[in-house]
Design a protein that fits this description.
The chain is an alpha/beta fold and about 300 residues long. Helices cover about 55% and strands about 10% of the residues.
């Protein structure tokens, strides 16, 4: 740990202005964690690297990235675990190679982050049950789907068949079933609340999300949740907030891969010249969402 600590301190002591702010220290700390996802890193050790107390580094890191240092490292480990599973390794072998240290730890992390057990993930979600429902909204037909962890899919489309095909492609081996209110009361309530938000200008529902993607995508999507209604930022600004200012294209790509419309508000991100940029559900929908939110924020 001593040599690694020296390297970070050398950056701090080099006189570079970029390390003077706490935010810049968090960027350096995130890069440090990214370089060693499988090592045990205590808050005290991380704080010592950047000259902050353990409690403050926990708070400031979360303010900058939306997750704690531990959750950030766990996401990196989960990415490594998924890669190992996709190459055919056993669950146990992939667990230890990713640095989790025990079977119980990875099962806990995976259940929270991908909504299914590791073995099911390795088999493309085989055995997972996902309920889905469609509803007409002011922005067109909307399909929402959920695992037992939360909403994993919410997309606009031209017809139910097209939307169901997209859902099947996203979860190729999961068991999909149309929701009835009596069988999936939570999903029925969530899609109704989202429809009322879109059609009647009611508050955006705060529902549990089952976010699935790479570690980088998950970081981008979680950061998008901090962009307030009525606020717009650029892809460049989003990359800066993420702590990776050069990753503008990667950030834009992650926004484009978002499968949970409105609830993860990728529509609030613009190009650096102020133009709308892209939106997988059509620029007209993006424009209407932004106009509605702007109007609401000014009342």
């Amino acid at each position: 740990m001593a040599s690694s600590q020296t390297s970070v301190r050398n950056e701090k002591d080099s006189g570079e202005e970029s390390f003077n702010t706490v935010a810049d220290r968090m960027v350096a700390l995130a890069r440090y964690i990214e370089s060693r996802p499988d090592e045990p890193l205590s808050l005290a050790d991380l704080g010592a690297l950047v000259g902050l107390s353990a409690s403050r580094v926990q708070r400031v890191f979360k303010e900058n990235f939306g997750v704690s240092p531990k959750a950030f490292q766990d996401a990196l480990r989960l990415k490594h675990f998924k890669q190992a599973m996709r190459t055919g390794q056993t669950v146990t072998g992939a667990i230890y190679e990713a640095g989790f240290g025990s079977v119980s730890r990875i099962y806990g992390k995976a259940d929270r982050q991908v909504g299914m057990s590791p073995s099911r993930y390795g088999k493309g979600g085989e055995g997972e049950t996902i309920a889905f429902s469609c509803r007409e909204t002011s922005l067109g037909l909307l399909m929402m789907a959920a695992t037992d962890q939360g909403v994993c899919f919410a997309e606009f489309g031209e017809n139910e068949k097209t939307l169901q095909d997209r859902l099947q492609k996203e979860f190729p081996k999961a068991r999909l079933h149309p929701s009835e209110a009596s069988q999936s009361p939570e999903l029925d309530a969530w899609i109704k609340a989202l429809d009322e938000h879109l059609s009647q200008n009611k508050p955006r529902p705060d529902v549990p999300l089952d976010i699935r993607g790479t570690a980088f995508q998950a970081r981008v999507w979680k950061l998008l949740l901090s962009v307030r209604e009525g606020e717009v930022i650029t892809y460049t600004e989003l990359a800066r907030r993420l702590g990776q200012p050069r990753a503008v294209r990667a950030v834009a790509s992650a926004c484009g891969r978002n499968r949970i419309t409105v609830l993860i508000p990728c529509h609030r991100i613009l190009r650096s010249d102020g133009s709308l940029g892209g939106y997988r559900w059509g620029l007209d929908r993006k424009r209407k969402l932004l106009e509605k939110e702007k109007s609401k924020s000014q009342t």
